[in-house]
Amino acid sequence: DVKVTQSSRYLVKRTGEKVFLECVQDMDHENMFWYRQDPGLGLRLIYFSYDVKMKEKGDIPEGYSVSREKKERFSLILESASTNQTSMYLCASSLGRRPYGVQFFGPGTRLTVL
Amino acid sequence: EDKVVQSPLSLVVHEGDTVTLNCSYEVTNFRSLLWYKQEKKAPTFLFMLTSSGIEKKSGRLSSILDKKELSSILNITATQTGDSAIYLCADGGSNYKLTFGKGTLLTVNP
Fold first, then answer.
1. Which residues of B touch A68 (CB under 8 A)?
2. Cα–Cα distance for residue pair A13/A21, rounded to 1 Å
3. Does A99 touch chain B (CB under 8 A)?
4. Residue A42 has pLDDT above 90, yes or no
5. Residue range A80-91, pLDDT digits in tens
6. Mutation test of the interface with chain A: which of B52, B96, B104, choosing the one with the most A Cβ atoms within 10 A?
7. How many pairs of residues across A and B have Cβ atoms under 8 Å apart?
């Protein structure tokens, strides 16, 4: 079974703090993704990576950065957290350089920025 | 811009009812359409439909792709309270990415 884990289920931070969200997958998947999910807006892609050290912007990259130093790990960084970044953050991974591969999701991190 | 639209946005039914959830897509270079179920946490994969596999079934759940109408339906028969979830539809055609619809919130009451 594919396992995607995220470092925290719940996180509370203050405005202006630097926040790291970590994601690890154990199935040797090439592709990894970060989404945020908000009521009424659905799942929106922040960044994705199709290889180590490679990254591409998704639909809403502003205010975020990512890091992929190892194949199994993909980090999302909020350089200076703001209240409008309060959300559920979901990490996913998929196999291979296929444009239509099934993505497998982690359990999510609910981030609250005060 | 590619677009995926789901309907209805929410639905309340009683146990034992049959439900049909809809997904329409406006995408270039269609390759696949995926369905996910999301309960309290991570979306879990249900089905992937492609040009060579337009109908899938698993237990009480089934899904059909209509390439002519650019749409898909997800059917759930004999619903149970455990079917209560958000059901997400996604286009899987664009450069590793999935484009998700906003989801349908299904509530099954006992």
1. none
2. 12
3. yes
4. no
5. 999 999 999 999
6. B96
7. 55
